[in-house]
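ingest -> validate -> predict -> emit
validate: passed (alphabet ok, no gaps, 275 aa)
predict: started
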Amino acid sequence: MNLSKLMKKHRWNFSLMLCLLLLDAGLLILFPLFIGVAVDDAIIGEYVGAIYLGLLGFLALLIGAGRRFYDSRFYAKLYLELAPKITDPAEDSTTLKSAHLGFLGEVIEFFENSLPELINNSIALIGTVIIIATIDSYVFAGSLIVLLIVLIVYGLSEKNTLSFNASFNFETEKQVGLIERKNPIALRWHFQRLMKWNVKLSDLETINYSVIWLFMIAFLVGSILYSANNGMASQGAILALILYIFQFIEQTSTLPIYYQEWLRLKEILGRLEKI
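emit:
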């Protein structure tokens, strides 16, 4: 399965999904700003900001729901197109075919669910950082430092992540054959090896996340204290900045999860490319 050929063949479908993703992400970025305006209007007895906020939410619902309806149908069609190639009677053993079908399911799952969220979060993160930069330069500088720390931490662990995933997938490819042999001792050793690599992946992610979380919490607390004592123009402006800071923390903490998924997918695609 050649990913580049697949995307070229369905380039119009992928282009439409990307456009919907960009629009969806752009609308989500605007929420804290509209909330701040709605708060300022409500304080003086006006409701125009609240109306605009409601319209933004309704438009985000239409775009988001439409994208998800389209995605699920397209990826179901894609799975039906690729599955017969993996189960070709002339190719590989039943053991490998079964494992590769499972891998294909993971690929489709990533493209349907994780990839849209990854793109959405990436766009939202960039937009959030830009908006923070327009509000306060010091908070903006702090956000860049946190991003740099995240990149360094996960960059250093990339090699181990790929190695652990390769070992886990190698064991998965042997599973059906071991089950068919009905050897409980061999199966037990197989499951132990699977869980060994699964635990190593989990431990690595826990360590990475714990390190970056300490820096993100420090940034969150420091930014809130700074914004509250910096004499900003209005309560709505302070609220908007705090919401954008919290949004930044949330996006920064979830992006590494998708990065880990992409590294696993990269290893899987290397196996499927040989089919």
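The mean pLDDT is 77.
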